[in-house]
Amino acid sequence: MGRKKNSGCGITFLLICAGIYYGVENGTITSDTAAKVVFFAVVILLVLSFLFRERKCQICDTPIKRKRYRGKFNGKRYSVICPECKKSLDADARRQRIRELKDGK
Fold this sequence. Notes:
With 105 residues, the chain is of the alpha+beta class. 59% of the residues lie in helices and 14% in strands. It has helices at residues 7-26, 31-51, 83-103; strands spanning 55-56, 63-64, 69-73, 76-81. The chain folds into two domains: 7-53; 56-103. Helix 1 runs antiparallel to helix 2 (31-51). The N and C termini lie far apart (51 Å). The strands form two sheets. A two-stranded antiparallel sheet has the order 1-2. Strands 3-4 form a two-stranded antiparallel sheet.
């Protein structure tokens, strides 16, 4: 089992805060500047964690690493579907079309 993608975000934030605290204590950084740096660090880390969050299939809840699809299942639209669920949905749709052709609809 590998480590999580965003496990370094907390450590990075703590290192930034420790550096700012050290700078404020020594007088090299003013408290206004420190507050601005911490604010921008929090915003950047939140944006990065949002962009690189783990996505899961909305049907089977398996994590999606590479390719994701959109589709319709039982009348409900899904925006994140894994390749396995997409394959089974396509097979179901194909079977239904064949049934409709056999019935003469």
